[in-house]
Amino acid sequence: MPKPNESPRFSLAEDDAVAWLRRLGDASVDLVITDPPYESLEKHRAVGTTTRLKHSKASSNDWFRIFPNARFGELFEELYRVLRNDRHFYLFCDHETAFIAKPVGEAAGFRFWKPLIWDKVAIGMGYHYRARYEMILFFEKGKRKLDDLGIPDILQAKRILRGYPTEKPVELSEILVGQSTRPGELVLDPFMGSGSVGAAAVGAGRDFVGCDIAHEAVEVTRRRLLEQGAVHDSGLIVRDADGRADQLSLGVTERAPEGPP
Fold it and tell me: Count of domains in the chain?
């Protein structure tokens, strides 16, 4: 945990999410927020009811690899293992994936509280009642009180247009980070994409560890967090419940350059 007035730290990995999680220590992180490329997105793309994943200025990829529903079991087991007791886990998903993910999460040991609704403000594509919302499944390991019990279960934030594929607004993750962590704690996203969860975490004085299978996602996130003043720390260490350390990053400590080159 950083000392007061220290810059938040971050560590990134380019890997399969589950393979990466298996290298982390038990009870080593304080919050999980993530948005897997869930299976039903492929169906929406195929029938033309989403533009979220088209070629964009932020990404040279027209599509990315789907994380199949069949792997949710191993994913949730690893997330439960690496999360400390009395902590929270938020999963972004659509209405179809929610029915699949909820029982799998409960089988892994999580308590399911409820779905939060992300109101995107602007209407999206579709045929039957065009989409304006996405779900955020709220799970808990142990028991932890939210920071502000007055926040409603409908969170409003404008969707990102013409950004990185499936990019989430930072202000949305800022709410979750503020509700479920304290300064200096460690936030994890194993499907980090453009790093919006990381941006919310370091902006609030939390450390961040993230992973994505796409090289471009790692580079976009790294630049983004450095520009926010966070430090890429090759010595960022998380410890499991027995105090054993597991190094998460490779490379050197890195800060954003000061001033023009």
Answer: 1
